Amino acid sequence: MSFWHELIVAFCLLLVLEGILPFLYPQRWRRLVEQLATVDDRTLRICGLISMLAGTLLLYLVR
């Protein structure tokens, strides 16, 4: 498989995973989004960085 094909497959899986919570628990998801709106930018950036690093580490371990 080419790199682009794998990237598209990964993106499609991301969309499926991201859609699970709003589909199964729309009210909880809405409350979560409301709570995230009150979190300051620095905290969101730190959470995003930790998420990216964890994903990169897991990808490295799996590959």
Q: Could you explain the architecture of this structure?
A:
With 63 residues, the chain is mainly α. The chain has one domain (3-62). Helix content is 89%, strand content 0%. The mean pLDDT is 94.
Secondary structure topology:
Blueprint: H1 3-24, H2 26-37, H3 41-62
Q: What low-confidence regions span 5 or more consecutive residues with pLDDT below 50? A: none
SSE string, helix = H, strand = E?
HHH
How helical, in percent, are the residues? over 70%
The percent range for strand residues is under 5%
Helix segment tally = 3
Shape: flat
Largest sheet: none
Nutshell version of this structure?
With 63 residues, this protein is mainly alpha-helical. Helices cover 89% and strands 0% of the residues. It contains 3 helices and no strands.
Task: Based on the model shown, name its key terms.
63 residues; mainly alpha; 3 helices; 0% strand; flat
